[in-house]
Amino acid sequence: MKIVRYRKSQKTLSFYKNNYKFHEPYQVLVDGTFCHAAIENKFDIQDQIPTYFHATTKILTTPCIIMETEKLGKKVNGAMLITKKFPVHKCLHDKNPVSGSKCLKSMIGDNNSSRYMIATQDRQLQEEVRKIPGVPLLYLHGCTPTLEAPSEASKKAAQEVIKGLVMTVDQQKTLKTLKEQTGLVEPQSVKCIKKRKQKGPNPLSCLKKKNNKNKINNNKPESSDSGKIRKRKRIKTPAHVKEILKSSI
User: Where is this chain compositionally biased, Basic residues type (predicted)?
Assistant: First the structure.
């Protein structure tokens, strides 16, 4: 199972690398729900997330998330202590703090230009993040971290980019003619294809077949006037005559 999880995570990471220019160190924004689930499942965020990705990562949080965990009180006291261990990424809500989910959404924006990964257990936030293209989503399934496969929004946006890069046949032709007109490429001379002349039949195939009947007839033994071959008659001596001859000797 570890090999399967590793292959899936690497496949998802390669998708975001190739299509959205993600690179190491990966920036993972963690909220209070993820930290709370990590305590319940005895999951070490600082050590196990880099080993899961097999890459260097920066685990970050925001001031709004820390303040949200502080307001919730003793129930999430452990999650608050964990969030305070991570580097705090500045957000735009210093004067007017907002909830953790709203803060993370504002950090992502419309296109996730800063290339953040979101680590959360909040189902509502997960649904909203899936609608934004180019946002990797990380959550805990028990004590196992899971990097979700790319959402439909991410796949569609990547396909549109690929379609824009690929030129049609007509576009390739127009580009070629423009290059020839400007002198960037020498025009290709059209080669005249010579037609092949029809050749006559092979003279060897036109030779007449030799008749071997005369040779066969010459090798036959001479026949009589009637055309039949004479056979030599053999006279057989009877057995009792042979016995008389033997006794006389």
Answer: 229-239
